[in-house]
Structures
1.
Amino acid sequence: MIKHFLNLEWKQYFRSSYWQKNIAINILMVFFALYFVAMFLGLGFGLLFILKEMYPEQDPFVVANGFLFYWIIGDLLMRFFLQKLPVMSVKPLLTLPIKRSTVVNYVLGKSALSFFNFLPLFAIIPFSIMLIGDGYAVSEIITWLFALIITVLIINFLNFIIEAFSAESELSFLPIIVVVSVLFGLNYFEIVPMTSLIGSGFLAIAHHPMLILIPIAILALCYGFNFKTLRKKLYLDSSLKAKVTEVNASDLSWTERFGDIAPFMKLDLKLIWRNKRTKSMAMLLLVGVLYGLFFYPQPMYREMTFMSAFIGIFSTGFFLINFGQFIPAWDSGYYKLLMSQNIKYEQYLRSKFILMVISVVLLFVLGIPYVYFGYKILIAHFAAAIYNIGVNTHVILWGGSFNRKKIDLDKKAAFNYQGTGAVQWLIGIPLMLVPMALFGLVNWLAGFSAAIALLIVLGVLGIVFHKKLMKGITKKYLDSKYKMIDAFSQDN
Amino acid sequence: MIYTKDLSKTYNGTTVLNIEELTIPKGQSFGLVGNNGAGKTTYFSLLLDLIKPTTGNITSNNVVVDESEDWKPFTSSFIDESFLIGYLTPEEYFYFIGELRGQNKADVDALTAKFEDFFNGEIIGKKKYLRDLSKGNQKKAGIVAALIGQPEVIILDEPFANLDPTTQIRLKQIIKDLAEKQGVTVLVSSHDLTHVTDVCERIVVLEKGNVIKDLETNPATLKELEAHFAGGAVVSQEEE
């Protein structure tokens, strides 16, 4: 049976038009994966020396265990945003003579083979080898290693439990934020010293191998919970069938002031607000606003002025990049309708453009408080916003004409809670790296004001030539019309 | 009104449609029948410029459809569910189409009010998204949306499929009225020979992309069509 499943997966993956048309992205993904493997390997081999250097008085093994809590939290957070429970189109399997439990076990088992589970091993195993080489008891380290592998799997399945809860709540990021911040808070305010608790827990396992039964039990519990929830959902009338939601119509008549593009503006706003995937994307606006807080509080980054250009582009362009890169795929479900309707392509694109510009302005305004960290940051953000409006909007619209991947807004794929993957983040790179490089270069050669001026000039040029650019972009879309219609009418 | 000349569509060396000449006059209710793969949907897609013809072209009201977009204001269609916008309610969808076709809310309301019977109280005012409606109700919404804005050409692919018997009968009346009273050119395809003969003044049979019959509908047409398709079945059984 597993053989059949694997065969189906293989075909689903390689026969999808997405794979065939995006080899470049796939290569990039492999590249990234290799990069992370290399990083982790380096960490694994180097960690022992680093720890000895930084904490010469303490036992490095004990110190390493002290950090495990942060790793667990970080891993959980990262997985929530990047890892999805492997989607298998299970609907056709339901009527076939396959036991439900087999399907569920397969889906869960497959998730254990995720790249995210192998990645930590590249650090853990070399570190263990180094520890043994350093004279630690082999049996202790081996037990410890197994405990960590089990922990990786626990995180894996715990993540799906959290995702299952977040799928049911309106604000999909809430559960993960709550879990992580409660754990972190308990530790930070020393209500429950999670760091040392988890650290000494792992040490205890290393010393008393029998205790490894505890993480095994937790793993079994997590797996069992996932098994039960998934099994319940494998019915047509639960998760495989879309829930009927009541409409809450809002008054969008204010869009009328945009004239002939008003119908599309209304449509776009409804698109964003009424579909799960786009809705969680809109929530990401918050991340865009708060992004600077990761960097600016540290004086190190405040010194590096080119960082503020990067953060400016990223935080004011957060929505632009996330929304823009899927133009026109957002409308792929009814693309044929749009193409046979009485519409002007340019109006359709301009509505998207205006929406992105509004988001940039909004994000810039919300980011004004960063002036607290220095006026230069505000200036850099302003220049970045202008650049986003003038250049990046057009670039991303132009890039959209190469879009050939359908987005299924209606289908709530059985276990696809996030609808976002790592690929999504890659496309933003040129949009951010180019201005960052330009800024960095000019800043280095001619100083801060010249670099700011450059971004602003580029942005203003884009705005001045907006009409012309849009004409070119529209033509590009018209040229690839048939290809897009064809690609969007294919599944996967 | 619609003139097709030397039209063909080829995919990887397989010709799926090949029409030498076909003229559909204004105000005709035109039926297209044929087995699966006969080229019905391909023809409609070409008519809407959704795919590019390999050779030849279609001229609609003196507009060559794959060269100009001027056919769009007077043409409307419902091919399949991908013409619906799932996250809108039926009303919002009608208004959206209405805005694209230069109709205000009052115009659209006046039009949809005429179809109260047809909707059977399951479409308007239900506070449901189109994606949450049943297949049949989705189809009803799509068909009525195709009637918004006084189009001169209406293209409906398989309009009778998925509809309940009552609605089928009502739909037949609607299509007949459009052609006879309002002078609209209606193009319909169907697998159901009875429905097509009831509705259409003229029926064209496609087989493997070729026009093999072009009939004015008369009381004997249904018999003739049935004989034709049954004959095909016998032949293919013998071939096996």
2.
Amino acid sequence: MTARWLRVAAGAAMACIAAANASADEPAPGALLYDKHCLSCHQADGGGVPNMQPAIAGGTWVKGDARALALFVMSGGFDSASRKDSDVGNVMPPFRELPDADLAAILSYIRQKFGDGGSPVSAADVAAARASLAAPVS
Amino acid sequence: MRNAWLVRVVSIAALGCIAVAGGAAFAADNDGLTLPEGFSAIVVHEGQGTARHLDVAANGDIYVAGRNGLSAMRDTNRDGRPEVVTSFGDVKGTEVRLFKNWLYVSDDVGVYRYALKKGQLGPNGQRETVVGGFPQERQHSDKTFALDTKGTLYVNVGAPSNSCQEKDRQEGSLGQNPCPILEKYGGVWVFDGTKLNQTPANGRRFATGMRNAVAIEWNAKQNALFAVIHGRDSIDTLFPALYNAEDNATRQAEEFHPIVDGGDYGWPYTFFDTKLGKRVLAPEYGGDKTKEPEAGKYPDPLVAFPAHWAPNDLLFYSGKSFPAKYRDGAFIAFHGSWNRAPEPQAGYKVVFQPMKNGKPSGPYEVFADGFAGDMKDNSPRNAQYRPVGLAVGPDGSLFVSDSQKGRVWRISYRKK
């Protein structure tokens, strides 16, 4: 009985270690891309920098419609009348140069991490948003 | 025996408490700040909201510019903390300077002044506009300024741009050449500070090639203007083939210069690379990491401070109460970085640069540190305090203001 319990406990412990390793070894696909393209402004915790860049964590963009988010990130913060009175100084450049798959990975990551576990964004969603962009890539 | 020892320990502890209580103004631990031997700090005030710059009058009255507006404070019972604190005016901004019987202040679009009356803490009369009508910009819009002894007004007009790219902050976008932003921004404009109702067109571009010289100061003893300039961001994300995140976190100096009439300090075409110890062409303008601009075209800084520390105020120490080595040297308040991420943030301290005859006379030293605290998640948002403004009081104490909570400290020498 005791031996069996020990075996079970040991098994559980091993599973626990394996799970910990798995999560440590396999960052979300979009995490590295977020670090590369987004982190310096929006920071590791998605909290932004007061007066400089807005927080994305918990905000409406990451919790809302996936295609609208894709369109916004590809359009950037420039020339956006609704953001004129924003209290942050810096505007986001348009990230439309990134491939659909990379954008989908980033957006899935920020929705999951900063948007209360929001649903993933597919490359097809990004492609659809891209098609609706007013201006072609220059 | 043992009990007697205990009584002695308790008594000593109690005496210690009384000693601290007796000098109530002085926090036992300098409010968590680390200071050089012999210095102590007290919290003067907190509660007026995000502070920017501050100035202290000859009678000890304190004037603070903040995001919520202007405040005046008076310590009537001389315990180090003001009993009278008033808000006034409608200027929400950065700079505040006492000049003769005037209080000069600024926001993003103008420089203004209020008349002061002897013995009266608040302003005596309405706000007057000295220069109005600077364009409202989103980046680098704080109009910090300096006044010389005659009332000449030097206004920092920051460039609303990182590096004057054709497409601001977009990967690989090249720089505009010549950079059109420099016609109206990215330098110091000079005005007659005693005249009213001027517009930017009444000013003259005094110096150029300065991305954002928030820390600008007139040095009366040297009869010269000085500034510490915020360097550029994002060399890694904009030009990933040339620079990595560590390069971005460490290379682009915050440059300390004497600012001369007609001077050009190299933005956006160049930056001073702290790793190479020389000025290089910016990647937007043909830089390949080592290529230098034409020899002698732009001056090297007096001091190249570490990247992104964000120099937000400069003060030449004119007080008498600090030890001799501090006389005529420069204190610089570094607001601290956001743009070193993912590398650890840095700055968030007050630095002392020894100076002699307007030139550095030794390496800079950290003067006051410990403002930021643990700074969870490496985020500036979580900094406990961020030093942003400096002033000297009539007794030679150094005043420091904070932008996170609006805390104001007084740092004194041998006052405990």
